[in-house]
Amino acid sequence: MQLTMIEQQQDATWKRIQLNTFTRWVRQKLEQVNVAVSDLETDFEEGLKLIRLVEVLSGKSFGRHNKKVIFRHQKLENISLALQFLENEEHIKLVNIDSSAIADRNLKLILGLVWTLILHYSISKQVWDHPSGQLGNGEMSAKEKLLTWLRAKLPVELSVTNFTFDWNDGILLGALVDSCAPDLEVGWRKWLPSQALQSTLTAMRLASDYLGVTALIEPEELISPAVDEKSVMTYLSQFPGAKYTPLLGRLHDVVLTPVVGVSTIFKLQTRDAMIVPEIIIKGPNGSSIRCIQRQLSETVYEFRYQPETPGEHEIMATVHDIASGDSAKLARTKVVAVEGTDISSILVDGLNNETVIVGQRKDIVIDIGNLIPMKNGLEVIVEEIGKVDRSKYLLSLEHERNSHIYRGFWTAERLGKTKICVLFDENVVCEYLISARHGEDITKCRALGEGLERAVVGMPAKFLVDMKVM
Asked: Which GO terms describe its molecular function (predicted)?
């Protein structure tokens, strides 16, 4: 019974996500002609908004139709006109969709129609920039085309096999944005699965600001285990046609949870040396926060400020082009200042900057004392460095309820260097760099000499140890 309830909840969740996504897609198209959309179940029943949607998608204008709808037969005529146009003029195959289903508000079939339009106009008719040119042929399905394009666009070390859980942690999306706009320096390689929402928020904001990719799905929906592939495909289908537009400037390295009373630094990079920035920071009560500016290079500026009270702060950036006289306001960035945590009292036992043997286990004990987690709590991040297929993961920790002692272990599984970072509420407690090497085979060590065969009491016995084979 419990499993059935969970399945019902997941079923309801993906249906809600799909309805939201499809509604945003339709709204995005009809905004171009100032037509409002709020409810797909009822918006198409007169046929008027459906006709306008098909006109926008096809780029063709309809002839005569009922513009003032009073009777049911007028609704059916309008809807039939749109459906016949899709089949006869656009050569789109419609399955089990007729005018009465839409007029009668059959939401399942209406969503089926919208998905057919998304597949045709947003994916199948997409202009693909794949190097092989294979995506232009008609042999591949729309799903295969999009998946193939994504695989070619993403770094080789990242695997993408689906349009559901592969996109739940924000890392793939960050890598995709980075690939489409490499000079943004997204920094997705440092992102962690445990910070999925923050990573997805960042990636979607950058995609919107710099690539013009509309958030057809909410970050909370994209990271949901119940998200459906049609919703994810609808959002991702915008990337192949996205064009990177460098802005006059951009903020980066902004700490989203600065600590009250602690100096916090962020940077602003301008497009060229003739552009100068202006920063205003407002505190929770609207008061201005003092900000110190320092120019690091011709195009990079550093800003330092110190939150005085906890709560939401707003960073407002304006850039001025000296040559043209143009000015532009960058997207406002909101951060939330929090009370500081004294992490110096945290004790870590079992880790050192040292060399270990491959296969050797390191038992780790961490005592956080009386600290209370406010965000992610205690985390141990393991990162193998200097490798093409470098891996980065959270170490599993165990602790009893109401205990301040955490225990875990790490085993060096292959040669090379590994960085282990201990964090508490995203603040670095300590970092260790550990090297792993193969153990020595002592059976190959040889000792020889007369002193091993015979010796005189009280006299030195000489022998040699050959370690060259080790």
From this structure: actin filament binding
